[in-house]
Amino acid sequence: MLPRSLFLLLGAALASQASAVESDAISLRDALAATLRENPALRIDAAVVEQRSGLLQQSSGAFDWNAFIDVNAFRNRTPAFRPPALSSIDRTDELAYSFGLSRRLRNGIILRPNAEVSVFDQVSPSATSFDGGASAVNFEILVPLLRGLGNDSTGAAEAAARGDVKVAKLLYQHSLATQAFFTAANYWASRAADDAFAVQRDVERAAERLVESTKVLVDSRIFPPAFLLQAEANLREKRTVRIDAELSARSARFTLGQALGLPPERIADTPAPLDSFPPVVAEAAITSAENRTPMIRRALAARADYLASRESLVPLNLLARQAVIDLKPRLDLSVSVGYRGLSDNNDAVSPLHDRMTGGNGRLGLSFDWPFNNSYQRGLLRERRANIDQVEAQTVQLSQIVASDVLLSLEQLRLRADAVRSAQDTVNLSERALAAQYEQLKTGEGTILDVISLENISSGARIRYINAHAAYATALAQLRFALGAVFEESGAPDTPYTLADLTTPPSL
């Protein structure tokens, strides 16, 4: 299962239990929610987070308390040195057991409270029989002296694993943003393809009406027969274009279904985009030159992929520090304090409380010094090279982020201008087409003039649709470049929620 904190990232978009793709049409917000809930690509990145969390748990397991117990029973039979008449062997029965706890602390100190007990029953025909037992109870401590008490050595693996989990979560957040942008782009592409298909269908119907009216006028000998041939040729061309537009619309719809994460058998039933293209807003403020640097800084502070690259340096530095510490010789101090007991019977527990001694102690040092230490030196070189590589990649990524922001700002400015220009072209071409039809009615125009203006008008409408779709995509692109696909909601249980990808981010 994924950590709960990852699901909080999705906020209200994932809180809804109703499937947004059951209806015949779907809004952009529902499409984004469905993507974040269902898309299998996100489960791949989520599995990486779970894997890193598992590695962290494994690393933490090295510092768990461990209980141990060991029990052995022995029977030793040996020939007697001077066998008497009744028996020729000596027999000794012994029960030995030990138990205790052990734990390695994160600073490298090892704690090991333990007890050892041995009781025996000795029978010998050549000597006096003896029953008894002995015990030793100790509290042992092992302290690494030359490696910073082990803080940077023993605890490095766990600390690095904790950093890896943080990096994996940031990369998962970036995957969420990437998939959300990908869905938004496909949503608007599907909407544009549907609208273009509708335009071509209207154009085909207009061509059919032109053929019908032209045929009537040709039969009435008002128009020459050549006009009918021109109208019929125009109809067949418009039908071909409409078929291509229909295929493009279906292809875009299926791509949207894949982005939504629909199962294979449901991609054919992908709902149509419901939302209209967002209105063009005044973009001069957000795209002005003085806002470029603040926008880049904002992106570097919010982009999860860049933050993940920076955070990945933390575990790498911890591991490099561990390699430096482990170049030192190993000098360990061992301390043991405890007591001993002795019993004159073979009861298994008596030695733990009979004839107890005072405190006993042991103090020792152990030294281990590999002369060349080639492995650690090679490991240190490798880890320092990893740091240099990631630092260079982080700088390179910061340049990519800056380029993305600048390009997104330019796209938003130019796409907005293209929408306005395309809208003016549509208005002018429609007026010109209406005027040309009036001239055709009065005999001052020709079928070819009408067909030519219809082509101009339909092309202008499709360019307007594509320009508006590109503008809507540019809005989502700018939010993605700035790391603003998700916004903080302020609620403690849902700190993040999906942003409105149809509006520019606030300054």
How would you explain this protein's 3D organization?
The chain is α+β, with helices and mostly antiparallel strands and 507 residues long. The chain has helices at residues 4-10, 12-15, 28-38, 40-60, 156-219, 225-260, 292-302, 304-311, 313-325, 374-441, 447-482; strands at residues 25-26, 66-79, 89-104, 110-123, 130-144, 272-273, 330-343, 360-368, 486-488, 496-498. It has 2 domains: 4-8 and 26-58 and 157-274 and 283-315 and 381-498, Up-down Bundle (Outer membrane efflux proteins (OEP)), CATH 1.20.1600; 67-105 and 107-149 and 330-368. The protein contains 11 helices and 10 strands. A 6-stranded antiparallel beta sheet has the order 2-3-4-5-7-8, with no helix packed on it. The protein has a two-stranded parallel sheet with strand order 1-6. Strand 9 (486-488) and strand 10 form a beta hairpin. The protein is elongated, with a radius of gyration of 40 Å.
